[in-house]
Amino acid sequence: DIKAINTVVIDISGVSLMADYMIVCTGSANTHIQGISNNILEKVKEAGHKIYNVAGKNEGEWALLDLGNVIVHVMLESIRDQYTLEKLWDNGKIYYFDKEYELQNKKA
Questions:
Q1: CB–CB of 75/61 below 8 Å?
Q2: Sheet holding 62-66: strands in order across?
Q3: Is residue 31, in this structure, part of any structural domain at all?
């Protein structure tokens, strides 16, 4: 199963010039992060879109996928908790896909 955990999409179009959207999600282990990343990259290629850069995918703790107007971060939970990208970019509009995760983050 390569489903990402606690996926959020952040609309950063009004606050950053680097991209329009940032996707942040968690993988449960290094191999899970690699699988999620590989799946995303495969889908992007199939759709005919360009992949600008990939970093950290083989190390597995934090993969960064630069897809042009979309930046994807796939991280271990401990790394995600350390860097708190949702808080760093909270001036953008955050879309949660897991209600429980949304409630946890809105309390914090």
A1: yes
A2: 53-55, 62-66, 70-76, 21-27, 5-11, 93-96
A3: yes
